[in-house]
Amino acid sequence: MTPLRSPYDLSPSDLAALAAEAGQPAWRAGQLAHWLDRRRVTDPLAMTDLPRGFRERLADRLAGTGLEPRRHQVGDGGWTHKLLFGLPGGDSVESVLMLYPGRATVCVSTQAGCAMGCTFCATGQFGFTRNLSAGEVVEQVARVWAELPGLRPHPSAPGHLTNVVFMGMGEPFANPAATWGAARRLHEGFGLSARAITISTVGLVPGIRRAAVEPLAVNLAVSIHAPDDELRDRLVPVNRSWPIADLLDAVRGYVEATRRRVSFEYALMRGVNDGVEQGRELGRLLAPLRVPGSGGHAAHVNVIPYNATPGTGFSAPSRSAVRRFRDAVAGSGVPVSVRANRGAGIDAACGQLRTMAGRPGRAPAPPLVTPGTSG
Ligand code: SAH
Ligand code: SF4
Q1: Which atom of ligand 2 is the closest one to the Cα of 125?
Q2: Which residue of 5, 204, 208, 312 has the fewest CB atoms within a 10 Å radius of its CB?
Q3: Among 104-108, 124-128, 237-241, 296-300, which stretch is predicted with the lowest mean pLDDT?
Q4: Residue 232, class by beta-carbon neighbours within 10 Å (0-12 exposed, 13-18 middle, 19+ buried)?
């Protein structure tokens, strides 16, 4: 059974049951869903068109659930925001909001920590605490969305979220029920198109096979990081269970079933995986992946210059190595881009999310700036 950890763990039928229990007409459930999904309001007491008694009953029922905004850090001159949320039970997760002219993307976590143990990733090194519920994933989106109008550094940044990426803490396909449950609610309830949602996986083959048959055709990103098994085994331990050939076989199945392109994330690390020959090999590996029908390349390589994470022993590549690597991949015709580095100043960049606050025996981190995180 889905745990009730957030108001967003309540399905439409749960909402209907709540209304019925309280002696309310069935359409109250629709009103409640409207507050939660369309207005991103999580506090029942603020749902002003519901009868007071019903609001109080709901507040009682939801007591102890939901995310607690604990810290808010601002980077990149207001274009990047990192939010730390306390979870029921004492753990915490981070979400990152990245603003651009015309685009507002939130990066959400699916687990507190991660059990995959990638050797270069701060989240992986921190270990695994627990899975998030679908509602806890959705609530990150809801809370960031609710704050968004007040966080914009410039009017060119939209006042609503345009994209959600499952690229925060955790491995989404190690928590498939929450991942797919959240994706569906963001689509059906929040009205985001499937194309506005991206799930990033370290390469769990069963998860990719499921993505191929899910009715909701979200974007898929696969973290590859190495062109050969010997190196990938060292960086990404799950490669020992699903080596590159199996991974690409599952991706091919996904492309054939969905006709969608797939991005391959490649965290570029100095002296580890940033060689020109490695770039060529990656290009050769991915060039045969084609979209059926059009024959266009199905793979897109996203090079992420490594973000320093203390204690891992890995470091950022030089700028010239990034260029050389990009050109080496492009040599096989595979589209490749270099991801702009966002949030490094506040440890909000890819792979830097980790939360010491909420860990047993540790004091919560002190609040930094907290403009308007109520709700
Ligand atoms: N677990 C999923 C999603 C979260 S990680 C996955 O691994 O795909 C999001 C992305 O950031 C992954 O591609 C991950 O490999 C990458 N990443 C992790 N640590 C990084 C670092 N220090 N610098 C750059 N990218 C990193
Ligand atoms: Fe987990 Fe992704 Fe980090 Fe690997 S890179 S440890 S899968 S969060």
Answers
A1: 6
A2: 312
A3: 124-128
A4: buried
Nearest C-alpha neighbor of 76 from the set 370, 360, 348, 373: 348
DSSP string, 236-266: -GGGGTS-HHHHHHHHHHHHHHH---EEEEE
- The answer to whether 289 and 252 have CB atoms below 8 angstroms apart is yes
Q: Supply the residue whose CA is at minimum distance from atom 26 of ligand 1.
A: 351
Residue 249 confidence (pLDDT) above 60: yes
Write down the residue that tokens 């309280």 correspond to: 22
Q: Is the whole model's pTM more than 0.85, yes or no?
A: yes
CA dihedral 13, 130, 264, 294 (to 10 degrees): -20
Out of 95, 111, 114, 125, mutate this one to test ligand 2's pocket (max ligand atoms within 8 Å of CB): namely 114
Query: Residue 243 burial (CB < 10 Å; 0-12/13-18/19+)?
Result: middle
User: Relative to the CA of 267, which ligand 2 atom is closest?
Assistant: 5
pLDDT more than 70, % of the chain: 92
Distances (CA, A) of 4 to 40, 64, 209, 290: 18, 10, 28, 42
**Of the bound ligands, which one is closest to the alpha carbon of residue 201?**
1
Helical (H) or strand (E) element with 86: strand 80-86
Which residues in 162-201 are b (16+ Cβ under 10 Å) and which e? bbbbbbbbbbbbbbbebbbbbbbbbbebbebebebbbbbb
Distance between CA atoms of residues 134 and 286, nearest Å: 33
pLDDT at 239: 98
pLDDT, tens digit (0-9, with 9 covering 90-100), for 217-232: 999 999 999 999 999 9
Residues 159-184 have pLDDT tens digits of 999 999 999 999 999 999 999 999 99
- pLDDT per position as a tens digit, 5-23: 999 999 999 999 999 999 9
pLDDT of residue 278 exceeding 70, the answer is yes
- Pick the atom of ligand 1 nearest to 225's CA: 15
Whether 350 sits among the annotated catalytic residues: the reply is yes
The ligand whose atoms approach the alpha carbon of 350 most closely is: 1
